Structures are given as C-alpha cells and as structure tokens.
Amino acid sequence: MKNKDLLQIAEDFGSPVYVYDSAKISSQYKRLTSAFKNVKNLKINYAVKALSNINILKLLKNLGSGLDTVSIQEIKLGLEAGVTPDKIIYTPNGVSMEELEMAVELGVQINIDNLSVLEQFGTKFPKTPVCIRINPHVMAGGNTNISVGHIDSKFGISIHQMPHLLRIVENTKMNINGIHMHTGSDILDVEVFLYASEILFDAAKNFKDLEFLDFGSGFKVPYHENDISTNVEEFGKKLSKRFNQFCNTYGKELTLTFEPGKFLVSEAGYFLVKVNSVKQTTSTVFAQVDSGFNHFIRPMFYGTQHEIMNITHPTKHKRFYSVVGYICETDTFANNKPIPEISEGDILAFKNAGAYCFSMASNYNARFKPAEVLWHNDEAKLIRKRETFEDLLHNQVEVDL
C-alpha cells in the first residue's frame, strides 16, 4: 500500500484504524504453498487467533486455507465464514470436557494435549478421530511468552510420556489420525525446526492409521528493513524431502499440515494513529498519539519493535521520538526512535499490525475499539465499525442501588 492510500483511509474512516492489505495476505499464502510444492498433500490451516475478522477468514478460505482454532467461538466464526467442519482443526488448552463435546457435535478435527483429557475423551468418543499434540521439549521462539514447546510449557503431552499415551490409546481403542507439535513463534533457526520435526516423525511411528502430521508454525517475519526472518523456501525444500522419505517408510501418503497466523497476516496490517501533541521534557521528545496499549498491546506485552512511519511527512529530516499512547499508565510504542519530524495532526503508521493486534484490543480506560478496513482490489472496504458509547453499555445491566 502507498502512503496516499493510507492517508485517505485515515481521512475517510478516522483514527485510530486498522488497515489490512489483502494482496499481501494472498502473496504470503502462495509463498508458503510454493515452498512445499514438492509435497503431494499439503494443508494450510490459518491460526484464527492472529486476526479473526470474518472477512479475513473468507479471504483465506477462498485461497484454499483451512482454519486452526482454539475456542468454540473461533470454530463458529469459521463456520459463519463458510469454512466446512472438515477444514477446521480445534486445538484447545485447558478447556472443559463440555467444550470438547461441543466441538465433536460441530464435526471438526479434535486435537488433544492432555493425558487425562485424552483418556476421558477416548472412553466417551472412541470412534471420533483425534489428533495428539506432543511437546517435543525444544526451546524455540523469540520471546518466553511465545515459546511453547519447552519442558516447562503447559502445552502438549511430553514426548517422555509416550508409553502412558500409548496405553491410553490401547485401552480405549480410540482413533488417532494425526500427530501435532508447535514449538513457538518467531523461529529463525531452520535446523532447530528440523530437529523438532524428527521428534514428531519418531512419535508418528507408534500409530498405524495416521492421516496427517501437523508441524505447527512459528515462522518469523521481518519487522523492519534488513530484519532477519525465517527462510521458508530453504525450510520447505529440506522438510519436504524428509517428509516424503518418512511417507515412503510409513507406507502411506500422509498430509503435511501447518497452522500459520502471523506469517500470513502480520505484514499485511497497518495501524494508523494521529499525533495529538508533541511534548518536550528535560530529556525526551514524546509524540503523543490518539491510541494506547488498549488497541496495540504487543510492544508492552512482548517487547516488539514495530516500525513507525510518519506518512504525513515521510521525507522530513529525522528526529528522535518516544511514541506514547493516551492510556493512564506507562504506554510506550517506541523509545527514542528516529522518525521524520513529527507535528501535531500528523498520521503515523505502525507496520506489522496484522497479527495479534486488533485481536488483543480491549476497552481499557473505557476507550472504544477502532475500526478495521480491508484494502482489496485498490478499494478500501470497512469490515468493522468503530465502537460507540452505546457499545460500552451494551451488555451492562443496571440495577437499583
């Protein structure tokens, strides 16, 4: 997208506002499928939690993607978007048996990561196909909050508990049709991913009726110019070769499955804010904008460094600014970063705002959640209205006091 397009959107729809470029989502999807073109059966399940607007789900469905979901509500969003149950996998953690039963009724693929739950489920639904999420005990990812395959993680059944797992499967006669792992997000080292994959291959040998192997995701995307990212093409070439070898040994053509979220939508997203004021203190120049971590929490939560552009005056001389929000707490988007000179009223664009940004937004400080706009075929389409005061009161119940 060009600056003029973003500026026009900010003018037409106000700020703050999220903008998603459908062409970038499409190109990322095609890049991933192309990297694994040598695999006969490939399935991409988009991780709904990254960005769950129903129009994004429809776009990905039209590209051929299935969905990776972690709640009943995400399943229902997928169904509402027209995705069929057979293209939805449900991978929860720590949910009730009632929620798992609801997923069974909806007809989606179930993925279980708890021995106790596996036994209960197998006893009650021995014929329902089940995927098992293992924990490979591989530390990977760019932040401890998004590294989920290590030994202290709450996710997955430990690879060291395989004997117990197999005993449950034998006793319940349950139908295991897939094996899954996910080590974390922002994985750079292809060799670490391949090492974890070997653990998954080894686990898969214990099951005779598998249909697919799910390798999770976690590919790192670039956050700024010259930033390093996962070499998906190299990874695709190496894993495809190894996967095809395993299928030959296994005696059956399995489906290779991934569940990318950030990889598909992160770079497609822009978050546009307006500068309310420029404040000089004894040591810092603050650019104070009309948003906060209630709308864009990742810098405060994960320490992410999103590139920030002054799209109103992109060619001005750069000065150092700390970009901060209007929330009544420390609320910092960037510390002492060089940005083209900022004036009050300028529009700033935060890049990589497609994944885990709007989906983590809240009404903290009783602020309205922003609008969402999809840039599709060179046209801006409103896909979520900005909230109003009535929305804040919508589910509140007044009582006599």
TrEMBL record:
One Gene Ontology term of the molecular function aspect: diaminopimelate decarboxylase activity
Domain Orn/DAP/Arg decarboxylase 2 C-terminal: 18-354
Domain of life assignment: Bacteria
Domain Orn/DAP/Arg decarboxylase 2 N-terminal: 23-266
CDD domains: PLPDE_III_DapDC (cd06828)
UniProt function note: Specifically catalyzes the decarboxylation of meso-diaminopimelate (meso-DAP) to L-lysine.
Subunit architecture: Homodimer.
Keyword list, A-Z: Amino-acid biosynthesis, Decarboxylase, Lyase, Lysine biosynthesis, Pyridoxal phosphate
Protein name: Diaminopimelate decarboxylase
SUPFAM superfamilies: Alanine racemase C-terminal domain-like, PLP-binding barrel
Gene symbol of the encoding locus: lysA
List of residues that carry N6-(pyridoxal phosphate)lysine: K49
